Amino acid sequence: MFFTNYKCFSPIFGNKHFSPSTMDNKDYSLKITVFHGRQAPEEGTLVGYGAIIEAHTLQVPLPETLSLISSKKRRYTTTHWQVFTPRHKPENSLYKQLVFALKYEGVNLLVLKQLFVTVDKTQITEIITSEMLGQYSRKLWFLYEWLLEEQLDIPDLSTGNYVSLLDDKLQYAITGIKSSRHRIINNLPGTKEFCPLIFRTEKLDRYINANLSEQKNEYLNSIHADVLQRASSFLLLKDSKASFTIEQENPGTNRAMRWGKAIGQAGSKPLSIAELERLQQIVIENARFVKLGLRNEGGFVGEHDRSTGAPIPEHISAKSEDLESLLNGLVYTNSIIQDDSYDAVLASASIAFGFVFIHPFEDGNGRLHRYLIHHILAKKEFTKQGVIFPVSASILDHIDDYRITLESYSHPLLDLIEWKETESHNVEVLNDTIDFYRYFDATKQAEFLYDCVDDTLNRVIPQEVNYLLKYDEFKRFIDDEFEMPDKMVAILVRFLEQNNGTLSKRALKKEFSELNDNEVKTIEETYQEIFLDTE
What we know:
Number of strands: 12
Oligomer: single chain
């Protein structure tokens, strides 16, 4: 039988019982209408993680959703708030606020890590032992020891049902492994060194339940092998060029093809720091002015003041001394979420966006970030190896949403990172920031990536396939009527595309001077009927 209010012997305080508020002199009853610049939907009492952040002055980004107790008997949600009725109000103690947070707001590793570092270990032990078999006490116990790698003076449990650490009604989880000491199933999709979490949303559930991978396979299986092979080649180059264009680069065809070849091999080699460094060497064509490999100094994304050269960061990268730990954690987490129970697109979002937030290289981070999307989708067999899934092309078409998605992580951190300008007009980070890159909410990134995956499946790939089918139809017409060489057909189509289905006077005087007026009219009408007929 599972007892949620069982009071047990405490190894710290003997058989004397202390309530969880004995050592807690903080006030968690802040009434607000605005909190850190965020407008509340009504006046109410801040509870959960928000109350804990405020009471303990924790230097963390605000959670995407905060909780509020209303004076009215109604419960509802808005974009950034959960509003609860007075009966949901927790007691004015750290323990009860933590229970509320875990129950209604899920696990926030960043807040909990900073809290555990801030609060005296004796108080944490008191909180846990006050309700030793309570599921939330056990979750806090496990998380304290997992995050701080420090064992509390509490004996192993020998009774009680196992309970999952993450509530899968709130956050996406893996199958997990059991911790007999805490009677907890650790279903976190990551490691202590790197563990982004993704909240369950209606949009993500809808995408996951739609089984886009199976839809994609059904569609691709309906396409003739020859057309699919040609489409894959075009899409590979299209994706490669799109990835460079996102970085505001215009590579030559050879460079784009070389990177496209690397993308085409995504999923074939194990992920490692050495593999990432190898891929960076492919991306960076001229390394005379770029240090290859992991950074040995700070990094940022942004501009420099034109008059002084001072850095104006839009994003501040992880400290160079933290890179090896973060990337080893990222690589290990990637192996953990190969678990079939964890969705391929969610896994791609966690790893790929985690990588670009860390920004471990001087250059090439963006293209490697998008390569990782291909790698994980292929590794988890969302996409077939060798059949490119040109998600970069969709990202490019939604570049403003992409920027907003990146900034939703980067901008809240700017106020929390202390830095100074270096002699070379770089940034040197002064405070401890490693946990910002380990433990972040990747929900927005996952939703954006799923939008792009859906767009790729339903628009980008069909457009390329349909174009090839129309091209083949037009070419057959030209072959039958004019016996024109393939190279000349390609030039003809390009000219017609550039001039909305008609041949320019220059083209008629030069490349196609042999055509008479009737032939030109027939070619133009046929092209327009095949390529431009909207019906």
